[in-house]
Amino acid sequence: xxxxxxxxxxxxxxxxxxxxxxxxxxxxxxxxxxxxxxxxxxxxxxxxxxxxxxxxxxxxxxxxxxxxxxxxxxxxxxxxxxxxxxxxxxxxxxxxxxxxxxxxxxxxxxxxxxxxxxxxxxxxxxxxxxxxxxxxxxxxxxxxxxxxxxxxxxx
Length: 155
Prior knowledge:
The chain is mainly alpha-helical. The chain has helices at 2-27, 29-34, 42-52, 61-68, 92-102, 113-123, 125-147; strands at residues 72-77, 80-86. The protein has one domain. The model has no long low-confidence stretch (mean pLDDT 90).
């Protein structure tokens, strides 16, 4: 009985936080701009903006991918080069957010649909979604960089 009451209380708290996030995402200029991308809604845009923050500290979208930990590690020794795994060095919430946005790339209306299908054919569905995640993150970087300081001004 106590556990069910605690679950109800936590559900209420989650609902409050969700409403606050959505309210912020409606008014924050960076969040509004990020929501122009396919698959990016209020919660995803708030997560991306919160984790990327001021993108002027990053010199390129490639650095944003590295910052998020979505870059593939490479082991190189004596002229031999092997691909590794994702570095996962960076905010896990940012990786989650762009991956969730990329999960919609299989839909016909998605602008990344053709890219996703080609990548899926070559490397499989999961790795194709990771590739689309990188694209979403790069686009997010450019959107926020074009906005400049306005993107992170308080609401």
